[in-house]
Amino acid sequence: MKSIQAKSSVKVVGANGQISLGKEFAGKKVLVEEREPGVWLIRTARVIPENELWLHESAASHDLQRALTWAQQNSPGESAPEEVARKLEHARKKTKSRSARS
Question: CA–CA separation, 72 vs 55, rounded Å?
């Protein structure tokens, strides 16, 4: 089992309220939790943009993994973008005319 060595050091809060954690943390995002007045827990973190959060839900994650597996097993073939656009436009018009009749 891997043992964890606790490190402790004294830092001075600068006049502007900042603490330097050292160059190894430069540019990294951290969570700062105030556990009680004067007690902070600082942890490195990864931030997920809200518009990408759905990718980390189990259903989306499963679907995405299936799609990636399929893509690895199936080489891309020749495509005809004009034909695809024509079919999509035809389907859109068909759907539009149905909703107009309703």
Answer: 19
Ramachandran class of 47: left when φ > 0, alpha when ψ lies in -120 to 50, beta otherwise: beta
- Among 72, 74, 73, 70, which residue's Cα sits nearest to residue 62? 70
Is the pTM value of this prediction over 0.70? no
Interatomic CA distance for residues 89 and 76, integer angstroms: 24
Please identify which residue in the block is written with the tokens 């009749």: 101
Domain membership flag for residue 21:
no
pLDDT tens for 6-28 read 888 899 999 999 999 999 999 99
The boundaries of the domain holding residue 64 are: 28-73
Q: Which DSSP string corresponds to 12-32?
A: ---TTS-----GGGTT--EEE
| Cα dihedral 49, 53, 54, 59 sign | positive
How many domains, in total, are found in the chain?
A: 1
